[in-house]
Alpha-catulin (Erithacus rubecula), 763 residues
Amino acid sequence: MATSPCSSSGVSSSSSSGLGADAGLEIRTRSVEQTLVPLVSQITTLINHKDKPKRSDKTLQAIQRVGQAVNLAVGRFVTVGEAIANENHELKEEMSVACIEARRAGETIAQLTDVASLDHPESDSHITIFTDKTGVVKAARLLLSSVTKVLVLADRIVIKQIITSRNKVLATMEQLEKVSSFQEFVQIFSQFGNEMVEFAHLTGDRQNDLKDEKKKARMAASRAVLEKCTMMLLTASKTCLRHPDCESARINKDGVFHRMRLALEQVIEIVTDSRPNGENEVAPISIYSGIKEFKNKVEGLRENLYFLSKENLSTMLEVILEHTEDFTDSAYTSHEHREHILELSKQAKMELEQLVSVWMQAQNQKTKDLMEDLEVAILKTCQCMNELKREVHSAATSLAADLLKYHTDHMVLKALKITGVEGNLEAVAEYTCKLSEQKEQLVEMCRLLRHVSGTEPLEITCIHAEDTFQVTGPQIISAAETLALHPSSKIAKENLEVFCEAWESQLSDMSLLLREINDVFEGRRGEKRVYLSLPRPGKHNANLKALKPVKLDTEEQAKIAKLGLELHLLTSDVDSETEKWEDQENEIVQHGQGMSSMAYSMYLFTRGEGLLKTTQDLFHQAEIFATEGTKLASALHALSDQVHDDDKPLLLLEAEKLISMCKQLQITAKAPAQGKSATFTKVDACILKTRNVMTLLCQLLPLCCKLLRKNKVGNGCLKPAPPWKEDRIRTGTNARTPERRVDTFGIKSLENHVTNMTFLESK
């Protein structure tokens, strides 16, 4: 569907003035859309002034300045566009036409707004914005249309770069598949690594720039596959070269190459917005989205009794109830959940029958009593669907929580590594069967979670997780078989380690995904618990009014993404530690939870989300975080008075470390910062120092627990362990490096020329 550049909130005002760009141009990226915002704002101001009766000299001068500014900016803009056209011959003709149109429209606007020196700008002797009111609208339309064309054409160059980069990667992959010597492999893999880095940079920029959140999530999933598979490709290929006659090694390597090719293909599908053979993508419908649409239709009957048929509504419910069979037919759904889902499904059918009956009567006779009965039927139907939604959510998330807890010890992976090194083929076969069972459980978990994920991006993340478990399981098995056949092979052992790490990493990601799904269900949409005893960010600060609030732009968010992700992972670790304490009222736990909550808000800020909207909000939150850390240090001092003398020095040392780090963070948060560069440096420093405090907190919480248990202070700290107690293995996470912004294709230059224009405020 084509999208007007005026569809975003930043340019919506233009529609009232009759402005609009070429309807055939679809804008898929934020950079193109945002580049048009200041231009549309300027032109809208001019259009709004053309009908105003009062025109002071100051207003006339302002109108003339804006007209000249638009013309000059368009001139510089067109110069860049023409340079791009000369460098890209396949676009030269289209780009040149668009540039000529833009230049002509800019000059027309400058002529029509040349009113400041005229005594009577509205007299017919001079053609101005006041005498030729339709002329300025036509020029504005032409200008917007032509500028949009230039931007969209420049955007095609970005797409071309990504495709070219993908083609280079594919060509080098083909060479890697055919190599027969280590020396040749090392040379080609070095080239492949450089090409993958370039591809990662280009696609990272594109991912950040996409407007469609669903496409953004698909791009993130594909890039994650490529990132993990690059290391797998290295070890799998080396293993195959070392053991060329080993069938399991060949299967292992072929699997990696196949998965990378699929991921590369998906990236191109997203970037070009096309699918092979012209197929349309059929997205699987989740129970959540089905219920949401069904409820919207039912509630729509309040406004219009005739806008849909009863058959349409019945079909929608049937589709939802068919999907609930994924839960009722699953071997992993508890008996209690299964019975409740079946009961609610039956009730939903009955409620719909009652609704349809009253609805049909109301169509024939619109009495007050019937309309009241219809309202009751609508409410009861929606309530039943809400209960069904709650039940499937509970079934999916409780299963996920249990499975993730049960598999956190990675016992099967450990056993495969040990038996592989021993060359025990029989034991390896036994544990591969167990891994296959585990894989089926986790795949089923992902399928059920997809139904209750609540948003399209989270649905895509569930599908990606399902694919990862589905593919990685057999790859671990083939890697383990190779090691068992060659137990003394260091490279085969390393290869198995890499695939096991990918499995462990995906399990860790599932814990984060489960939390996000619960957040969406509970209406937090990614916000953590807010501890009401803490001051809310952005308030209680007398200095805020004197400072101009600043938001991070897309480029700055990309630079700080790695730090933000690390902070996110640390909050998960801290929450995991605090949840182990039986006494949740313990002062140390309270402070730890509060700090984790604030750190999570700071992480969301790095993504442009959450409660912290400006850099000043962030700096104030950092100050409160540091204060909370100082209070925690006081609690540690109090605890040191209750523990044995042998333990006291270590606890006091850690408390002093915490105090020092919190003081440094407070100093940084309060330090003045003038200008964009200095502000971003301060943001970076605050997040970095918050991360360091959270790292220390991750070490402090288990230490305090251990000392409390050893000294039997208070009510104890850890919850009773279940009979199958797992030893939690904390796996290292490869936080993705922030994507480098490359400015080699001109679109940033185009942006700069447009956004440098000054704004005229409508009065």
